[in-house]
Amino acid sequence: MMLIPCPWCGPREEAEFHYGGQAHVAYPADPGALSDSEWARYLFFRDNPKGPFAERWNHAVSCRRWFNVVRDTVTNEILAVYAAGEPRPVQA
Predict the structure, then answer these.
(1) pTM of the model
(2) Contacts 24+ apart (CB under 8 A), 31-38
């Protein structure tokens, strides 16, 4: 079981959270202008790195707030936690 440190509630078990996918994916400026292929790329194609990866998480059981986590996909070590809307920390 992974402990995830919620920025507002502190460390909690992974079962209290919902995974929200890759963080910092910008919504298209003009989605109506995208081709089907471009729209599919936005919806379904995400990075899958080996190592540090910025993810969105929701603390569904407690404060219900969204936040970002930089997690090493090899070790599951959490390298940084920060509020949604903030830039990714430089060191993570």
Answers:
(1) 0.88
(2) none
Tell me the pLDDT of the chain averaged across its residues.
Answer: 95
Question: Amino acid identity, residue 73?
Answer: T
Tell me the per-residue pLDDT of 43-67, one tens digit each, with 9 for 90 and over: 999 999 999 999 999 999 999 999 9
| Signed CA dihedral, 52, 23, 62, 80: sign only | positive
DSSP letter for each residue of 63-83 = T--EEEEEEETTT--EEEEEE
Cβ count within 10 A of residue 18: 12
Helix/strand/coil (H/E/C) assignment for every residue in 7-24: CCCEEEEHHHCEEEEECC
